[in-house]
Amino acid sequence: MQDDEALDATRATSAPDDAGAVASPKNIVLTGFMGTGKSTVGKLLAEQLGLKHLDTDHLIERRHGPIPRIFEQLGEDGFREIERAIAEELACDQGYVISTGGRFMVDPVNADLLSEGNRVFCLVADVDIIFERVMRRRGARPILNVDNPREVIEDLLAERAAGYARFEAVPTDETPASRVVDDILARLAT
Q: Which helix (H) or strand (E) holds 129?
């Protein structure tokens, strides 16, 4: 509910200007593969900038239930439709650091919606680092509950490479989240 309440509060302050148009959204969007630090960095970055943090996966779970259950009941196509609805909603909002799910911004519709008027950064890490990080929470990632999760990670990274390459890359390999935030802040200042 916290994410929904934050969205409602922001909408209430996004009134039309004198010409009747709503100001362009001004958000920072973090994308990238699972395990690159989007949620952790997003929270810290929002705190530093005095913005609200919104995690798209958390918002989806609050509204629709656990993601594994959504996949079971609606399939991947149903889940992606939910993501697109969230992207449409967020395209109208401002004042956020938005941490997206790993495939969220690979969808061209979502990418177009959230790129306009916003700054998008793609958090990246070496496959070994990603593997180490995601295996700590393997149970929370049904896609990795297979015999060779590293192969799944490598295949997905290759499949999504072009989508991620569309955005400014920010390395997170052996870097503490606070230094990743400093890197993004420096980039925002230019």
A: helix 127-135
